[in-house]
Amino acid sequence: MNSDSGEKIRPQKYKLEDLGWDDSLASAFEKYGGSYVPGRVSSRHKTVFDVITCRGSVQAGASGALHRIGKFPAVGDFVVLLPVPEAGTYTIVDILPRKTVFSRGVPGKDGSDQVIAANIDTVFIVTAIGPDFNSRRIERYLAIVHSSGAKPVILINKADLSEDPDSVIDSLSLSASGVPVIAISALMQSGLSQLEQFLSPGTTVALIGSSGVGKSTLINALLKKEVQATGGNRESDGKGRHKTTVRQLFILDNGALVIDNPGLREVGPGTSGSGMSEAFHDIIELAAGCRFSDCRHENEPGCAVRKAVEDGVLPQERLDNYLRLSRELEFQQEKAEIGSARLERKRWKGISKAARDIGELKKR
Ligand SMILES: Nc1nc2c(ncn2[C@@H]2O[C@H](COP(=O)(O)OP(=O)(O)OP(=O)(O)O)[C@@H](O)[C@H]2O)c(=O)[nH]1
Ligand SMILES: [Mg+2]
Ligand SMILES: [Zn+2]
């Protein structure tokens, strides 16, 4: 489905310049000798990275030295690869200096790497006409994009669902002064020509936004090909699913690079996440009494937090506020979560295998 990037990026076609390579990267790479190969990380699958090189797309693991210093490649990184001919694989031995870093603003749960993507020129903040539309959330996205060094562009997708998409644009422009706001329909492929100005060859654009706003639909429209599965979340029946689970970089026919991301539920200011446990000490303490350790305090049975609301001990608004900010932290921990979901499935296949995976996760 989503992960056979080897096929999708048509390996032979690309030169380093096509990937956004420039003089400063070339000079950073100079110190490496003949057998090293530069490349750009297009996807990460737990501990294995897909890297696009002039030899095509290869799979690589990070070196022990990178593990030891806790430095991990992110999608969009330019990396230095050392071929391991015996194994027919590659090892990532270094990460070349990043031009921009799109990170979550606070350290991850385990203090590990918090970089979502690197070397992003422009971020398309994708929202959609309908229930997702929320100016406050867009402002939060803007805050994290601004702090990344990338240029934000706000896309209002599903314009086909509105009689008057312009009025929606007008309502936003005020709060997002100076930031381009563009209405499109990824599904109907309308308005897409307005995006061309941001998609010049060698430019890297990342798409972010809630699940179901149409990021992958837009990726497919831009690639003129069904590379990504779509059909994001089903908020209405409460069984919201993030369709896209792996962050992935694609190359458009014109040479622009686009990154599809898993949906984000909500984002926050990106700096105050570590203050959560202090600010919501009461809820954290109550949560220790929930039946499930991963209780989200939504509909789970045996939820001590909801019970406290029912008993009038905890104000509903306080819980709402907490849940909203927790989703923001989820944004931070998304990568770790994807890892543990896999782990959960594997647990049923064999305890010993799961144990090895935990070891691997810890190394990350
Ligand atoms: N009406 C309309 N529907 C759209 C449009 N773009 C996407 N959709 C629909 O919205 C749903 C979600 O689209 P996706 O592209 O999977 O959304 P996503 O943002 O990639 O979702 P995640 O991968 O979960 O983050 C699908 O059913 C799409 O067909 C649009 O422009 N108009
Ligand atoms: Mg998607
Ligand atoms: Zn609970």
UniProtKB/TrEMBL annotation:
InterPro entries: G_CP_dom, P-loop_NTPase, Ribosome_biogen_GTPase_RsgA, RsgA_GTPase_dom
Domain EngC GTPase: from-to ranges: 118-265
Entry keywords, A to Z: Cytoplasm, GTP-binding, Hydrolase, Metal-binding, Nucleotide-binding, Ribosome biogenesis, RNA-binding, rRNA-binding, Zinc
Gene3D superfamilies in UniProt: P-loop containing nucleotide triphosphate hydrolases, Probable gtpase engc, domain 3
GO BP field: ribosome biogenesis
Entries under PROSITE patterns matching the protein: ENGC_GTPASE (PS50936), G_CP (PS51721)
A matching Pfam family: RsgA_GTPase
Segments forming domain CP-type G: 112-267
GO molecular function, one term: metal ion binding
PANTHER family per the UniProt record, alphabetical: SMALL RIBOSOMAL SUBUNIT BIOGENESIS GTPASE RSGA
Protein name in the entry: Ribosome small subunit-dependent GTPase A
Organism in which the protein naturally occurs: Methanolacinia petrolearia (strain DSM 11571 / OCM 486 / SEBR 4847)
